[in-house]
């Protein structure tokens, strides 16, 4: 198959990593894959290097804001016209919306919804864009329910295909040495990895950490990432003290940190299917996450590892359990690793996408869809 993949950007993130895994897996199976990123080449180019290394062509629209929409649309439309028989798959809101305006009337296309973001204007825009696509892939059942209720994507036009993780990468990695930052080797570390952004609800950790860190000085918290809240988090961590809380920069490889931590914590307000939970599970670590879209599905509804959003007492209880009981953490972590290996392999993800594409292409004899107006 000829497959054109369109995404908003290729900075390292969950959706971007999933696209890269998918592109490489499809390419390795003999499909002819190309990638178009609406944004300029990323600062952190690890995903681009991987695509280049696999021989997958990558084109950049180099748009920095919606003010660049006219030349960006021109570039994307020209790129899509180079292979009119290819099936097109877009990922993320901006890519879905722009791709919808660039498709020819007979072009078969699939959209991808990765998060359940409920802002009214965004939902109105994306709902209209999704009418142009033959099919929609949602990253979790909860996101599919959101797409049905808020975006008009009925079950007959929707598939659920979760993210995947390369589990072998986490099996034999050398753990991060906490002594390198001045902590004892056996520190019991709660780890957050992600964007320092309100979506991730880091305020919940700021409220509750003093309780579950308590007087046990072997308990620690590490926040890894970058984003608009970095400065305020660093100030808060300084107030708690560097012997208990550290804010670390974004890391190109988080496997050593996951191998060394006791538990991963993710108190997000909304998600799609967070890769960092998959990676923690692949590393054999327990998780404490809010019961939001995708996160709860990954841990299989396990109430030991999830809690209702903003229920601070339950968050504290779960953190206390894993930080205080090493045997429990190992037992739950081993179960998590097995769940990932059984259900969330890259091969299974790629096979599910390929089946979806073949089904959509098989419907090509049906009536063509109406193109969206260029003024969208």
Identify the notable features of this structure and list them briefly.
7-stranded parallel beta sheet, disordered C terminus, 2 domains, 42% helix, alpha/beta, Rossmann fold, 6-stranded parallel beta sheet, 376 residues
Beta-strand proportion:
15-25%
Distance between the first and last residues' Cα: 30 Å
Name the overall outline: elongated
Overall strand count:
13
Task: Compute the CA-based radius of gyration.
Answer: 21 Å
Description:
- This protein folds into two domains: 2-164 and 345-365, Rossmann fold (3-Layer(aba) Sandwich), CATH 3.40.50.2000; 167-343, Glycogen Phosphorylase B (Rossmann fold), CATH 3.40.50.2000.
- 42% of the residues lie in helices and 16% in strands.
- The chain has 376 residues and is α/β, with parallel strands linked by helices.
- α1 (14-28) runs parallel beside α2 (46-53), α1 packs across α14 (346-362) and α4 (93-102) packs parallel to α5 (120-130).
- The chain has a seven-stranded parallel β-sheet with strand order 3-2-1-4-5-6-7, with helices on both faces. The chain has a six-stranded parallel β-sheet with strand order 10-9-8-11-12-13, sandwiched between helices.
- α10 links the parallel β11 (263-266) and β12 (287-290).
